[in-house]
Design goal:
Layout: H1 27-50, H2 58-78, H3 83-108, H4 112-132, H5 140-164, H6 178-207, H7 214-242
Helix pairs in contact: 1-3, 1-7, 2-3, 3-7, 4-6, 4-7, 5-6, 6-7
Pfam families: BaxI_1
Keywords: Membrane, Transmembrane, Transmembrane helix
Protein name: Putative YccA/Bax inhibitor family protein
């Protein structure tokens, strides 16, 4: 049951075995909720890109949306039964943030957002097919490696944020040089492999007979990973484009 996704901890599905079959979580139900969540994010991002980006309050939304989204994510994690209400709100807030940040990248590198979106969904579909065909198996060693790598990346980002308050930046890895590009490729790979852990975790939720509202929670976990993957691909492409 190991996963590096903070939304899907090892005890997420424990204690769920007393629900009627028609009240239990299913993989198909989670897929439907994920599609709805993607739709909400897309609509919110388009509105943000098309309207808020040109407003004088764009900077406020750029800062406030991810902070509020983080708070809603915490509420979702600690109160999973709220998922049917909190996940759509989370998707709206993250969509606002993604639309704005994508707009800034698009101004610097025209066409980069389309490339990042195509790459993100390409990775999602490829890994889903590989997982369903059992080309990639979520073994314990695989899970341990992905969790360890994800934890290491999180530590690097946390240290970078703390050092940033003192005007210090970690050299090389955040630049557009060879080391920075290799680091971004590594992060994209780890973010993508987290999708495999999410797929496996959702299937285990169905096996454990989790309640129906956990379909929204499973969709939430996938959205957390997909948003991270998109942002990392966007950063990688920007590093590559800056070298042209």
């Amino acid at each position: 049951m190991r996963t590096s996704n903070p939304a899907l901890s090892s005890d997420t599905f424990t204690g769920f075995n007393n629900y009627e079959q028609n009240q239990q979580m299913t993989v198909n139900g989670t897929v439907n909720k994920t599609i709805i969540s993607l739709g909400i994010v897309s609509i919110s991002a388009y509105f943000s890109w098309d309207v808020l980006f040109f407003s004088p309050y764009s900077t406020i939304f750029l800062i406030a949306a991810p902070i509020l989204g983080f708070l809603v994510a915490l509420a979702t994690i600690f109160k999973k039964e709220w998922s049917p209400a909190t996940v759509p709100v989370y998707c709206i807030l993250e969509g606002l943030f993604l639309g704005l940040i994508s707009g800034f990248f698009e101004l610097m590198y025209p066409g980069i957002v389309f490339q990042a979106v195509i790459a993100t969904f390409g990775v999602l579909l490829s890994l889903l097919l590989a997982y369903k065909s059992k080309l990639i198996r979520a073994t314990e060693n695989f899970k341990l490696g992905v969790v360890a790598a994800t934890g290491g990346i999180a530590l690097v980002y946390i240290v970078s944020i703390i050092l940033g308050f003192f005007g210090i930046s970690i050299p090389l890895i955040f630049g557009s040089g060879p080391v920075g590009i290799l680091f971004s490729i590594f992060v994209v790979i780890i973010a993508a492999l987290n999708l495999v852990l999410d797929f496996d975790f959702i299937e285990q939720g169905e096996r454990y007979g989790a309640p129906k509202y956990m379909e929204w929670y499973g969709a939430f976990g996938l959205m957390v990973t997909l948003i991270w993957l998109y942002l990392e691909i966007l950063k990688l492409l920007s590093k590559l484009r800056s070298r042209d």
